[in-house]
Amino acid sequence: MSQPNLSTPVRILLGLVLAILSGLALVLAFPPYEIWPLALIGLVPMLIAQFRIMPPKLSSLASAVGVAVWLQGYLGPVFAPVGTFMVWLPLIVGLLSLFLDAGLRPFHSKTDYHWFVLSGIANWSGSEMIRLFLPIAGTWAFIAHPFYRQLWLIQPVSIFGIIGMGAMVIMVNYTLALLLMGWLDTRWKLAADAPAVPAGVLRRWAIIGGSVLVAWVGLSLVLLNVPLNTPAVKVAAIQPSVSPIITANQGIDISDIHARMVEQTRSAGEQGAQFIVWPEGSFLWDPQTDNQIDFPALAAETQAHLALGYIVVEENGMRNEATIINPQGQFLGVFGKDHPVTFGGETSLTRGTYPVYDTPIGKLGTIICYDLDYTDTARKLVRQGAQLIGVPSNDWGAIADTHFVHVVFRAIENRVAMVKADGGFDSAIIDPYGRIISMVSYPEGGEATVVADVQLGNGKGTFSTLLGDWVGWLILAIMVFFTFGSKFLEKRAQAR
Questions:
Q1: Strands 232-239 and 275-277
Q2: Residue 2 DSSP class
Q3: Co-location of 85 and 183 in the same domain
Q4: Do 219 and 102 lie in a common domain?
Q5: Is 241 exposed, middle or buried (0-12, 13-18, 19+ CB in 10 A)?
């Protein structure tokens, strides 16, 4: 075993290059690039830099830079059009990593890397769980997202949730990094302060990591082939070329847009659509009390259930709601946006209720746009028996290739069909297995009437529906254990 004679500046430079490489690899793994295998190995260069290349006192700089590059490269362009917070978020998270990860290198050195993989899972997946409590971000940039098209791999989300899927991805990254560190330790002594990874630890995690990955893939293939035995329903998403609500706020007459959306609805009805979804904020009035558009007549003409997203501006804020009208012209009820953009003034009198309507075509419900980004809202509807969920949304061009990804995971988590209708950018029809039955994505905006047959969900949900983010809670407990028990683990290791 040789000791490379690398100066401190060279070690810092090499470590930063590897960290940046990790950040770029993760950017390429996510939409719109979708080189998804990179998500399984993307963290490895950063971890090698952090635990073998960088000077000990600067080791956490590697994770800070890697995470910041990734979040800036992915979320920066996505959210830049709507505000500066997400532009600053990578810097904030990077600084947190700089301070929070400072003790990881000495901890793993003192404990002979016995806890390396489990600690990585706790830190990464635990932070994802924490984000579900925050009023912003939600599941954006969750490490499981690059796999949304890999149906053969993501079905266990119905048991373990999206955080469980993310924990598996992190486990693969950390196990590979540990094995590579062990291999490097037999050839070069890259870090004089870090002991070599014991052979027993390498064998143990190679067996655990490999076994979990094989079991995960096997379980996914089994779940993908479990039939639902539910009927199919023809559904439609109405997407105008521009957002009606944004156009109205600009003082532009939107009557022509509404007239065109009515014609799109008629066209969908002529194609046999029985459930037709309009976008979030399709109009600035309550269709139950205002007849500017004769929706009872339109529902009767098309013989379809219409899910309508609307906003009503009041003194105490903007009611962001959705309602469903049946072919008999009856409004079935109101759903208020469960995760309103409160800093934008959104509210609802019915927020916190999750109505599901038993109809001849199945049990129907609605959620609205930002509700997609959290795991709880769709879950609460399916607990009420929902088989098909309409999702009125109002996106912008930069997220056209990314926001519909959330629909895939909400569908699998709960074995429910979903129809996302956007104001002008990305609409999709997703079946209970996460299959993208039909979709459009127009970063520059464009009109579309998306019509397809989709199988109904089972109306009972899944293990994930029943227990929610149970894996996330378990990982949070492990995270707390490492936070407050690291000294105990170090003393125990020294006593062996």
A1: parallel
A2: B
A3: yes
A4: yes
A5: middle
The whole-number pLDDT of residue 483 equals 84
Q: Is omega for the bond preceding 32 within 30 degrees of 0, making it cis?
A: yes
- Report the candidate in 457, 423, 454 with the shortest Cα–Cα distance to residue 440: 423
Q: What is the pLDDT, as a whole number, of residue 317?
A: 77
Give the CA radius of gyration of the chain. 25
Given 3-state DSSP classes, what are the helix, strand and coil percentages for the chain, each rounded to the nearest 5? Answer: 50, 15, 35
Q: Is the pLDDT of residue 370 over 70?
A: yes
d(CA 321, CA 342): 14
Q: Give residue-wise pLDDT tens across range 302-361.
A: 999 999 999 998 877 788 999 999 999 999 999 999 998 776 677 777 778 899 999 999
Q: Is 192 domain-assigned?
A: yes
For residue 202, pLDDT beyond 90: yes
For residues 190 and 11, give the distance between their C-alpha atoms in angstroms, rounded to a whole number.
9
Check whether 411 has a pLDDT greater than 90. yes
Cα(181)–Cα(51) distance, integer angstroms:
8
Does residue 385 lie in a domain region?
Answer: yes
Domain shared by 407 and 277, yes or no: yes
Whole-model pTM: value is 0.93
Please tell me whether residues 77 and 154 are part of one structural domain: yes
C-alpha–C-alpha distance, residues 366 and 373, integer Å:
14
Residue 3 lies in a domain: no
For 99, the token pair is 């301070």
CB-side exposure of 448: number of CA atoms within 13 Å? 24
The answer to whether 413 touches 161, Cβ cutoff 8 Å, is yes
Q: What is the reported pLDDT for 189?
A: 67
Closest by alpha carbon to 486, among 130, 108, 214? 108
Provide, rounded to the nearest whole percent, the portion of the chain with pLDDT above 90.
68
Answer yes or no: is pLDDT of 92 > 80.
no
pLDDT at 195: 81
**Residue among 319, 452, 463 nearest 388 (CA):** 452
Question: Which residues does residue 448 pair with via DSSP β-bridges, in sequence order?
Answer: 239
H-state helical runs in 384-469: 404-414, 463-467
Both 382 and 301 in one domain: the answer is yes
The answer to whether 368 and 349 have CB atoms below 8 angstroms apart is no
CA–CA distance, 112 with 201 (Å, rounded to integer):
8
Give 19-67 pLDDT, tens digit per residue. Answer: 999 999 999 999 999 999 999 999 999 999 999 999 888 888 899 999 9
